[in-house]
Amino acid sequence: MNYHLAILKRPYLEAILAGRKRVESRFTRTRRGAFGEVEVGDTLFLKESSGPVRAKATVCGVKRFENLTAKQIGQLEEEYNHLICGDKEYWEGRRGCHFGVLVWLRDVRRIESVWIAKRDWRAWVVLTEREDFGLLKRC
Fold it and tell me: What is the torsion angle, in degrees rounded to the nearest 10, for the CA atoms of residue 14, residue 121, residue 127 and residue 93?
C-alpha cells in the first residue's frame, strides 16, 4: 500500500467531502504524478490548494488512459463527469492531455487540518519516508 498527497482546488475538495465527487481525475501531457503510481488500497491525503491537508480517503478503483486525443477526452467527460464534477473550463483545459488517471474514492474522512511545508508546484506526490510532510504518522 502506498500513500499519496493530492492537491485540489477548494470547490473540488468540498465536493469530495460532501460526497458529490467520487472520482478524482488527473490528466497530463506527459506520464507523471498519479499515472502508474496509484493502486487500489492506497491512501490519499487531500490537501486544499494553498491550504491545509483536510481529509484522507482510500482508493477503491483506478483507470489509466494513454495516448489520449481531444475526442477521447470528450468521451471521458461524457462518461465520467457525473462522478468527477468538472466544469466546462476544467474539461477544455484537458483537451491537449495525452495521459489520464481516474481514481475512485471510498471511506473519505475529514481529518484535523494539517498545514505542511510543501513549496513546489506538484499537484500529486507519492509519499515516501524521506518526503512525507509528517503525514505518514497520521495513518
Answer: 60
Please report whether residue 103 resides in a domain: yes
Asked if the structure places residue 80 within a domain, the reply is yes
State yes or no: pLDDT of 128 exceeds 80: yes
CA 44 to chain centre: 8
Phi-psi region of 129 (alpha: psi -120 to 50; beta: other; left: phi over 0): alpha
Q: Which range marks the domain in which residue 61 is found?
A: 3-126
Question: Residue 43 maps to which CATH number?
Answer: 2.30.130.30
Is 134 within the bounds of a domain?
Answer: no
Distance in angstroms (rounded) separating the CA atoms of residues 94 and 40: 24
Number of domains in the chain: 1
Return the sign of the alpha-carbon dihedral for residues 48, 126, 19, 87. Answer: positive
Q: What is the pLDDT of residues 69-118, one digit of tens each?
A: 999 999 999 999 999 999 999 999 999 999 999 999 999 999 999 999 99
pLDDT digits (tens, 9 = 90+) for 36-76: 899 999 999 999 999 999 999 999 999 999 999 999 999 99
Distance (Å, whole) CA 104 – CA 68: 20
